[in-house]
Amino acid sequence: MLIVLAEAVLGEGALDAARTVMATMVAASRAEEGCISYAYAQDVLDPAKLHIVEKWTDDAALAFHFQTPHMAAFQQALAGLEIKITELAKYQADDGSPLM
Length: 100
What we know:
By secondary structure, this protein is of the alpha+beta class. The chain has a single domain (2-88), classed as Alpha-Beta Plaits, CATH 3.30.70. It has helices at 14-30, 59-66, 69-78, and strands at 2-10, 35-42, 49-56, 83-92. Strands 2-3-1-4 form a four-stranded antiparallel sheet. It is globular and about 40 Å long.
């Protein structure tokens, strides 16, 4: 399994302007074969920070994701907004186990 973790800094009003396109992106990504989970979360202590967490079955699923029409539409929609990715990394992981 691959885990992708990212952080983004949001400019004034960027989240409100992007909320609909982000919701569309999340729904389309979750529907992709190979997507285990896909989510965005606003930081509780820093509302200008967005956390992105994705889980994919493998590199092929992630590569396919980057080539989808909804990814192209998403990038185009965000192009004019002040959203800067500050961290982006992928990690190889096993399926995990419950902590409790």
